[in-house]
Fold each of these.
Amino acid sequence: MLCRPPAFFFNLAPSIKLAALFALSFILFFIDNIVILAGLAAAPIIIYRLAGFSVGSLGRCLFPAAILALLLFLFQFFATDFAAAGRAALRLFALLGFAAAVTATTANSALLAALERALRVLAPFGLKPRQTALALALTLRFMPLTRQIWHDIRAAQQARGGAQSLARLGLLISLWLSRLVTMQEDIAQAIEARGFDDEEREDS
Amino acid sequence: MTIRDIAAIALFAAFITALGFVPPVFVPFFPAVPLSLHSMGPILAGACLGAKRGFYAVALFWILLLAGLAFAGGSTGPAAFMGPMGGYIGGFGLAALITGLAYYYWPHPIIAQEFLFMAVGGIIALYAAGIAWLIFLTKISLTQALWLNAIFLPGDSAKIILCIFIRRRLYRSAPHAFRV
């Protein structure tokens, strides 16, 4: 009985999970045995259950890709044979299932921190960690505001009425972007006013 | 890179992320396939910020997507990259780069030129990356992959027209925002 989710999947370092996932994404393409592929496609279900999640939540994660996977299966089935189509679909589901398991058992903040650490490795190739960290922090700051402004503009347009058209959609997005740009400039000015001179600090 | 550049990159990364939450729309002359606005983000990032900064905005979006803080093609986290849409998501970077480069070399294009710039970046480059990954992932033939993509062509052409309209309006209202 699964009363408490075991900590193993949650405690595993995100960098190890990501590295394993990328390794698996390549290994999968060298496996042609349909039984092994079926086992690998079923493995994420076991991981999900062991981690304390329902199979339904995995299904919800995989649903958007399932439609395209079905289309690809049919393409393969008519072009080649059932076994080849099955192999392609199983590979896809195994990959997506493992990727969904990594996402489900890793906190967003832990994944983000792991990615920031990974980006530091690229510093000798010209990537500036402080600038990247600032850009990431600003993006996270902008994200809720961006959605809020979109909803405000959309609500105002709906209140005015009128039929939906491509021209109206274009107008809506250009208004949205225009307001976003104004907001971004205000924030950039505020950061500059606080004396954040990135070039100077980066060079020192 | 200045603070304003970094803020502009962050803004477009947030914009690309937000486009992933905008529900698909139906094009009047081609209602069979819903039009997802997501790929407009990298095209506009390249057209407004230039190749380098536009690419950085897409790279930030990739990080957020990998961390599960953004959506693409209904997926998030590593699954988004590993799924059938992975190639298109990778192609976002190519779309921003190519569109940005075109505007760098021809900074004052006429509408037909703009359509060409955005079509090369937002359709040809994006489809090329998407098709390559689709073939690798599913081992379908090039012809099959091309047919799968053909249904999206009318909608993507409509998106390019929208991008031209948006870019021109933004250029009139906030010319200082452009960093090409």
Amino acid sequence: MEEKISYLRNKVNMSKHKVLDLCVKAGMGHVSSAYSCAEILCVLYYSVMNIRPDEPDYENRDRFIMSKNHASIMQYPILADMGFIKPEELDDFLSPEGSMFGSHSKLAIPGVDFAGGSLGLGIGVAAGIAYAAKSDKKDYKIYCLLGDGELYEGSVWESVMFASHNNLSNLVAIVDRNKLAITDYTENMLRLESIIEKWKAFGWEVISCNGHDIRQLLDVFERAENRKSDTPLVIIADTEKGKGIDFIEGKLNWHGAAPKKEQVESAYNSLEKEVKSYE
Amino acid sequence: MNEARDTYFKLLQKKAETDNRIMFVLADCAGFVFEEFRKKYPDKIVNVGIAEQNAIAVACGLSLAGKIPIVYGHSPFILTRTLDQIKSAIGIMNLPVSIVVNGVGFSQPWFGPTHFNMDDISLMSSVANMKIITPSDMSLSEFAAHLTIMAESPLYLRFDGRYSANILSSVSKSDFSDGFRIIKKGTSAAVISHGNCVSRIIPLVEKIEKEKGIEIAVIDVFSVPYNDGKLYEAIGDSPVLAIEEHIENGSIGQMFATYIKVNNKPNKVKLMNIDYNGRYPACVSADINWFYKSYKFTDNDIISNIKQMTER
């Protein structure tokens, strides 16, 4: 277990460094949103999901729907590291020559199952895939990552109701509960709590965990894999937006922004400190 | 009973008996046409309730998992409530999802202004990769069913409810490849239209022809996009009148008028659309003639406009 955690921590560090590299080079990018879900994505991609880099469209692969797709930049270093795309293709990020990357994933990127960007949409799409999988008696799972801010979208709750009514137990939603939207903290802007009770009321099984704690994430995904239930499952992952860069972490006004020139060195230093804290 | 819509659904239901890819996504909208099918094949129907946004999202997911989803919802809500979902989930990803509505134009006058669907071609033609089919008879319903099965891109199918018989007795599928069909030829003027208006226009045109001893072309432009170059070839330099139960902005007539202007063609073009002009239909009435009269869309208005076009 310790070896696995260490392996995954290294992948998180690699991905976060690469995301910072890309965003600094481009002068933009959703660093803070990406950092709140770094551990979640690394645990899913490297340890949980049944996927094949050499066969991205493998029919029985687990599906990943990135509903909070502004953070999709965190997927790219992982996809490159796993061999879905070539590492050098990452250099195209946000460049006019970029064949693959816009500000969001497109279906043209191997390993990407959904081109998001409009919030409140991914969970319904994931529910549709889950419905089809059940209908075809396929046993793959569908993982959907939502931001907490997108829970304001009414369409989310249409889909949440649909999933439980149809017993979509093959659907696992993860809410990246970083408590920050663009302009304000969620509980200041419009209270979201109690999120757990809301999902329960809609008929979902709910597990909560620390979304930066790899051990906890491994544990909840293992429980998700082994559970026997007719209901869909949601994991409420408590996170910090911008986790790892001290002047961004949990701070307002960093949504969609990259560190400025004079802040870059400090950002990298902060990341190094975080790496050392886990050694 | 809506024969054109029902023809479409019955053909697809027949296909769905043996093709497990076909699934109907209903937003609490079905009609008698689904009664028998629902009893036999409940698993092929996904009824999401009055939740149009979820209907589109679920259809997108079904499509990504290899299904052929056909979304049927109340018009216009399945389009206007969900425009972002259609644009983001279906258009941008270019997914073969078919969206079907019934009750376009003034075909459901009793429901009042919130239920009128007069701007749908404008909205759907702005969605990336979207193909629109606006059937004027059952042969086009059959064509629409064929397209749904074969689709590799999004489809929007707008049924009306006021027509039944085939306008042309013998048409092959190849007649549909350019997105329009010539109902009758003529050189004095060309009337282009689609949907219910086509069968309404034909006897009015024949009346004028008899009266004036001229020949007027009637062309059914049932698809967007359509082959505008070939449509121009078919019309030549004749004056063109476009008649549609649709607002002018984004109408098929306006699209063709743009083609004429951009390509410096000599044709005189007139558009006959529903002009709300600040007067959204406030009356809830079952009498369609009230609407025709209010919006200058009576048979006499149509005749008058056609006659004007024939006076060179």
Amino acid sequence: MNEDSPVQILKSNVWYSNPIFIQILGICSTLAVTNNLSNTFTMTVGLMFVAAFTNITVSLLKGIIPRKVRMILQTLIIAFYVIIVDILLRAYLPEISKALGPYVGLIITNCIIMGRAEAFAQSHGPLISAWDGITSGLGYMWVLMLIAFVRELMGFGTLFGIAVLPAGFTPWTIMVMAPSAFFLLGTFIWVAKTIILKQEASSMQPKPGRKQASCSAMQPKGGK
Amino acid sequence: MKKNGLIYTVLISVVSAFLFVFLLSLAYGATKGKVEENTRLTEARAYLVASGITVDGDTDIEALFKSTFPGFDKDAAYQTTTVNGKSVVVSPFQGNGLWGTITGVIGMTSDLQRIVGFEIVSHVETPGLGGRIDEVWFKDQFKDEYAANGIVVKHGGGGGDKDPDNGVVDGITGASRTSDSIQTIVNQQIDKIKKELGGTNQ
């Protein structure tokens, strides 16, 4: 099976090598923004945009960038797109820009983007790299949205700011704070891993997930 | 030129840094007017809200602002206006939050007994935690709150404070530091308005 076919990339980034629950990348934003669905959504869309365009640019420039300075230039490219997103939000969507505050800038330090630029875009063409960026963003988005769903529902009794639970409901304060994201993410990894292991055991075929060594080099920079 | 040589490496780094920053400044220049316009509108809106005027999506903020504050002076410490027959003192504030400067506008009755309105213009507090100072429920607590002796932003308990006569508003769960900052900023501002108006410190 071709590892780099668009469908394989989609499956891999959304499930088998999901950036959040398999590669455990970009955790600081997982802990911080996920107590509110609207913020989570904008943040993940921003990440998807930056990941896709960074991948395209890195892929286009890979031929002329010397190996020695490739990482610092990747950071430059990521910072460039993040500031572009920030400028666009400020000019055309001031409300969202206000709500997200410093988090737009923090996309720069999200390991998923640099991880994909280094692991994928450095060795692939621009179109397929863009797809890789978008699907990585999707993999990030659905996990964060799920966590945000539980946190906002239990923490505030609302979904996207609209009250859904009865007024008598006592909000779970812990769900608003960062530690709850740890508990939820841990539970999520447990469930996801169990499903993946079951799938592997029942199919007894080599799993289609891609090599993960590529990302281990990026891992120590998780903190915010 | 050797691709891994020093000269090529430096050249590429400088050229790409220049190129990307150049594009950024282009984008910044192109949207500058729009951003300034947004900032101005946000401020005008904040002044209106602080004077106790209800502003929604259809309000012509610009026109309403001009009619409410005909002699608006950007650098003045406070503005006075009359809303629904009551005279109001409106004053812009700024102070330190947890991560950066919080700016906004606060309005008080002219006898400085009660807060009329409270609006945040800008802040860089943590979204979802301290950033919730910009949510409507938080700002609405200040409306009509008795504040002749300043206010207290309450921590803990969980019961909530609905009494507008005790000068106590609810803090934000998970953001005690930002809540403290708001308390300090608002109290300092109230003192400042008192001094500016030359009133006695009651």
Amino acid sequence: MEALASLENSAVAQFILGYTWAFYGLLAVHAFGMAGVVGGSIMLSLRVLGFAVGVPVAGFEFLKRVAAWSFVANAGSGILLYFTNAKALTVLWTFQIKMASILLGGILLWVLWRQISPYKADADHRYDGKAKAVAAATIFFWIAAIVSGRYIAYTLPVGF
Amino acid sequence: MSETEFLAWVGQTPLSVFMVQTPIAFSVCETLHFIGLCLLIGALLIVDLRMLGLMRVITLRMALKFIPIAIIGFVINAVTGVMFFTSNPPGYWTNWMFWVKMALILAAGLNAVWFAVFEERKVLAVPQGSDVDRATKISAGLSLGLWLLVLLAGRLLPLTQTLGNG
């Protein structure tokens, strides 16, 4: 808990808390990141699930890079926001579910990409049930990350 | 009907009463708003970036297949957005960032209509391997830029509410 308290008392955390624009600016960066990561992941997953057959997965290579940079923006802004309320967030169940969902969503996305890569040049490829199950689970966990993330604000103890 | 009467009327609609009296309604709408945003931006990343000359492995015609997903995302956000407004009409009405967001949505919407009416037909006629013309590229660039600004304005709404409207 001392380490968490030192994060909250750090100069960075105090700066963010002291400047309302900084706090909301980080929230905005976090939203941009979310749109890139989750939006990109959902589009790829939908293609695997059978939407837009005719689009080769190779076409998503650039989107993958956009999603990766969005994740960097998301993680960076998320860490800074975490600094401002580390003690309360660490033990908050919605925050824990969000972190677990992001971890699972990321792992599943990696697994999905490995599964579909051999067919990525084939525009009309129809993926098997296993790939579709991973795609559906990927969407589920990224949506779970959004839902739990949204409810962090509603489940924080009063006064935080 | 004056501005005050309009806001009072909105505040008395069944939807407004529902939003105010149902504790979970606002948070559910916020969550759906975020999901709609991801669908909208995710789909537009494919459509607009392809029009701008990236992701060339995807044919122009196939990229357009993602437009319905963007529309679904927009509809989710429009519906939940109206629900937000009914929960606190004067709060939104007097927040300048709300009007910035509305102006940006109007501009993005007009650009989308322009794309659907004038550009989409041209895109479908472009021979495989060729690029879209400059007007289509400008429309695609505007689309992505304007929707990202809508996102920014939306995220800053609570800030200007907090700081007041001076």
